[in-house]
Amino acid sequence: MTSGASLCLGVPLHRLWAVRPGIYEDEKGRTWVTVVVRLSPSQRARGRGSPRHEPSNTVHMWQMPVHPREPMSPSQLPLSQLPLVWQLYPGRRYRAMDSRLWKWWTMARQITSTEQLILPQLRPGE
Question: Which terms does the record give in the GO molecular function aspect (predicted)?
Answer without folding.
Answer: protein kinase binding; protein serine/threonine kinase activator activity
